[in-house]
């Protein structure tokens, strides 16, 4: 479904991606792990076309993303939950969720869009009373849920989750992980998550890919992750300060 | 020895190239904004919201600025004119000064302070919190959704604000002149109206439209190109206001030259 071949990206003299190769099959939930600043978010943004790679090829459903004609139709296949939820402060919750349904090619009548938004909010565990609040009135966990509802509002084929549990308490993180897993299975969507929360990895992933040094260092099923013979992966999973991954002290 | 000569030249060259690149980027940004203003889809709600924030909500600050400027101008002209017994030209000079220059410039600068800063801070915060990226993933072009409605609102509302500012500025001069300088109210107004020509008013409104585009465009440009974090937002806001103010004053000079030096 998603394929990256030899993707390179540098910002000035700083090389972030140095030949990333990754394939994510349809309906699969792949989690990208890696330390801060290893280029996980850059990789995600390259797939969405928010950042243009310097070299390499990215295709979605066999179609090269650089040659895709209708960008609107291309983006309509995606839903994305941002790290900080990235809700629009100026719009009430329901209009955030129904944003795509209120404008553009997927536009519906306002009442219908609101009904869908309320249904999606219910799916992520929020009542209709939240619909008319503004994002600033919500807690971090509720904002993530609204972000999740917005990501699934137009029933996308592919959903990206950028650090879905960052900034949440462990219980709320567990709830969000469960929700993500349920929704991805229920919708049959292809999911790509980036995180460094190992609890999240075990809860969400079918496959795990570790990004290190600008390349995919290890890629395999989540069940094989703990037994993998890769010192970088082992150090990351165990969170040990000692190992091949350099740490600043 | 050669390095001593070439190093300053290289630095100068780099600065000139950077400045030219910025001019190029701003020009392309402006052209893209105008293209989005005239091509669908149009975001009516965002445009109405921008009309309110750029235009209607700026009325109090424009009115206050204009009334005090007009009043002060009347006092200055009266005091200056009395040195060669020309106190009676107060209505004419106030009208000319306010309508041709001070009205549009003061309104433009107040909008740069009030609206440019707020647009830059809002869009920069949206960028820092990934709301701009979120817009793109939701199939919405940020230039069309954020920039086009604001720039169009600036183009449409600033002439109206300048018209209001000019009227209140002239009123400020009239009030001071009739209350403390002994002018006859009706004669003052008659002199003002008789003296002003259509070209004075047209130049004032054209300046307003140009300043409206500059003020909103600078807010959007620096907001969209903001750096990371709180510092990035602060820098974008400061740069937008400075750029808008300088460009408004420069554009005022060029427009005055175009209108009145033939």
UniProtKB/TrEMBL annotation, chain A:
GO terms for molecular function: ATP binding; ATP hydrolysis activity. InterPro entries: AAA+_ATPase (IPR003593), ABC_transporter-like_ATP-bd (IPR003439), ABC_transporter-like_CS (IPR017871), P-loop_NTPase (IPR027417). SMART domains: AAA. Pfam families: ABC_tran. The keyword Lipid metabolism does not apply. Keywords: ATP-binding, Nucleotide-binding, Transport. It comes from the Bacteria. Coiled coil: none annotated. This is ATP-binding cassette domain-containing protein. The lineage of its organism: Bacteria, Pseudomonadati, Pseudomonadota, Alphaproteobacteria, Rhodobacterales.
TrEMBL record, chain B:
Pfam families: MlaE. InterPro entries: ABC_MlaE_roteobac (IPR003453), Permease_MalE (IPR030802). It comes from the Bacteria. Keywords: Cell inner membrane, Cell membrane, Membrane, Transmembrane, Transmembrane helix, Transport. Could be part of an ABC transporter complex. Belongs to the MlaE permease family. This is Phospholipid/cholesterol/gamma-HCH transport system permease protein. It comes from Celeribacter halophilus.
């Amino acid at each position: 479904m998603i394929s990256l071949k030899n993707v390179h990206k540098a910002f000035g003299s700083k090389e972030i991606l140095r030949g990333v190769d990754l394939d994510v099959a349809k309906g699969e939930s792949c989690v990208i792990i890696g330390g801060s600043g290893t280029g996980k978010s850059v990789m995600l943004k390259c797939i969405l076309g928010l950042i243009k790679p310097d070299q390499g090829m990215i295709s979605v459903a066999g179609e090269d993303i650089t040659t895709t004609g209708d960008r609107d139709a291309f983006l309509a296949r995606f839903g994305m939950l941002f790290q900080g939820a990235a809700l629009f402060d100026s719009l009430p919750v329901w209009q955030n969720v129904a944003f795509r349904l209120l404008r553009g090619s997927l536009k519906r009548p306002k009442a219908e869009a609101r009904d869908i938004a309320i249904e999606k909010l219910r799916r992520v565990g929020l009542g209709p009373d939240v619909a008319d609040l503004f994002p600033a009135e919500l807690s971090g966990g509720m904002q993530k849920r609204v972000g999740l509802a917005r990501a699934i509002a137009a029933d996308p084929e592919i959903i990206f989750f950028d650090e879905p549990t960052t900034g949440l308490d462990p219980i709320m993180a567990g709830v969000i992980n469960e929700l993500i897993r349920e929704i991805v299975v229920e919708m049959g969507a292809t999911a790509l998550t980036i995180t460094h929360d190992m609890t999240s990895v075990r809860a969400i992933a079918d496959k795990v890919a570790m990004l290190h040094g600008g390349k995919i260092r290890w890629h395999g099923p989540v069940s094989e992750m703990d037994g993998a013979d890769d010192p970088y992966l082992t150090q990351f999973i165990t969170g040990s300060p000692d190992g091949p991954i350099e740490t600043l002290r | 020895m050669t390095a001593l000569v070439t190093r300053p030249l290289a630095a100068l060259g780099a600065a000139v190239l950077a400045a030219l690149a910025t001019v190029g980027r701003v020009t392309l940004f402006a052209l893209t904004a105008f293209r989005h203003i005239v091509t669908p889809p149009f975001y009516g709600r965002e445009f109405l919201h921008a009309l309110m924030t750029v235009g209607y909500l700026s009325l109090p600050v424009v009115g206050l600025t204009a009334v005090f400027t007009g009043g002060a101008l009347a006092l200055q002209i009266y005091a200056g004119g009395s040195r060669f017994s020309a106190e009676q030209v107060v209505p004419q000079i106030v009208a000319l000064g306010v309508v041709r220059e001070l009205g549009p410039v003061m309104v433009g600068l107040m909008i740069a302070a009030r609206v440019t800063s707020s647009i830059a801070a809002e869009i920069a915060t949206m960028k820092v919190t990934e709301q701009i990226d979120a817009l793109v993933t939701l199939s919405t072009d940020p230039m069309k959704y954020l920039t086009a409605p604001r720039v169009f609102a600036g183009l449409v509302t600033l002439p109206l604000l300048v018209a209001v500012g000019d009227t209140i500025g002239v009123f400020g001069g009239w009030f001071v002149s009739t209350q403390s300088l002994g002018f006859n109210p009706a004669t003052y107004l008659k002199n003002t109206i008789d003296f002003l020509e259509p070209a004075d008013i047209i130049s004032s409104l054209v300046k307003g439209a140009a300043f409206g585009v500059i003020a909103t465009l600078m807010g959007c440009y620096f907001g969209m190109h903001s750096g990371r974090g709180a510092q990035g937002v602060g820098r974008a806001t400061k740069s937008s206001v400075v750029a808008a103010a300088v460009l408004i004053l420069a554009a005022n000079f060029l427009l005055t030259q175009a209108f009145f030096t033939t």
